[in-house]
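Quick one, tokens below. Sequence please?
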């Protein structure tokens, strides 16, 4: 029993921290496990979870996507404008996904095909996406969201918000793609040893293109979900999410150097950060003090994940 628990903790380093946080916050605050608070916590983190799945795919190849947060913003704004003009929800979804896919494809071509550095490339597309979001919205929230979209943001099924069910669906698809397909095995191999991947016949540029494309596509979906959550398309909705997305993936135990990690670990990382932020808010910890706690936790989590990874190796 003890050995199995130890093995689980080594494979999923976020689990022990989650257990400690759950026990601590539920003891300190009587509102923490309240059904309304849990629903709000799940809904608020659906955007982060969807985007974090895309970031996980990129991390597994040894890359990074700094543009995903502003792709969320640009997708939300353009989708909101389309829905405000047409009152067509399906067209709004297609617009959000199309914008995200466009940025993802641009990153994929520049990094996978032309060999540009992921950090610089995605930083450039990050700035472009942010500029588009603010220029197209003129810096204000896009109003005119169809009632169905706003209503959808409040739907709850079996105690779980509808937007969170969508995020869980993305997680399941991500897990299946990485564990049950040849593509998933190739993603891990590219991240583990790029040269070996080439020698075994894997099309490395194609794999790199695919993960950035999917990251952008999921950023677009997250942008649309943000509209359902907030009721309007906010041009700066993704500006504060980048470090949270990266932090969740790292805390879950996915290595930034590639080849080590999983979507399930990312789910646990998102859960850890969402529990931490929500609990700190409930007990009245000031925002900037929360940033210090998050930073220390990410540092410790990264160190622990690296140590456990070496031990498994």
């Amino acid at each position: 029993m003890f050995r199995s628990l130890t093995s689980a903790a080594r494979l999923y380093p976020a689990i022990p921290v989650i257990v400690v946080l759950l026990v601590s916050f539920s003891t300190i605050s009587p509102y923490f496990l309240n059904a309304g608070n849990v629903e709000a916590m799940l809904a608020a983190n659906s955007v982060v979870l969807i985007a974090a799945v895309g970031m996980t795919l990129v991390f597994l190849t040894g890359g990074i996507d700094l543009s995903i947060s502003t792709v969320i913003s640009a997708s939300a704004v353009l989708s909101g404008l389309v829905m405000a003009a047409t009152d067509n929800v399906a067209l709004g979804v297609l617009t959000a996904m199309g914008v995200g896919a466009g940025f993802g494809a641009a990153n994929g071509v520049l990094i996978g095909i032309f060999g540009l550095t992921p950090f610089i490339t995605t930083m450039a597309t990050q700035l472009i996406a942010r500029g588009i979001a603010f220029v197209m919205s003129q810096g204000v929230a896009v109003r005119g969201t169809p009632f169905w979209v706003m209503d959808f943001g409040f739907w709850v099924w079996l105690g779980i918000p509808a937007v969170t069910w969508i995020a869980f669906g993305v997680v399941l698809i991500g897990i299946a793609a990485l564990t049950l397909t040849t593509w998933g095995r190739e993603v891990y191999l590219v991240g583990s040893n790029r040269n070996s991947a080439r020698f075994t016949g894997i099309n490395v540029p194609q794999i790199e293109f695919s993960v950035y494309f999917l990251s952008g596509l999921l950023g677009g979906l997250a942008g649309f979900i943000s509209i359902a959550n907030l009721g309007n398309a906010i041009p700066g909705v993704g500006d504060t999410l980048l470090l949270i997305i990266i932090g969740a993936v790292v805390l879950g135990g996915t290595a930034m150097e590639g080849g080590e990690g999983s979507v399930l670990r990312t789910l646990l990382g998102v859960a850890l950060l969402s529990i931490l932020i929500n609990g700190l808010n409930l007990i009245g910890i000031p925002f900037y003090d929360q940033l210090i706690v998050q930073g220390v936790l990410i540092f410790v989590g990264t160190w622990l994940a690296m140590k456990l990874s070496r031990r498994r190796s």
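The radius of gyration is 19 Å. The longest strand covers residues 156-157.
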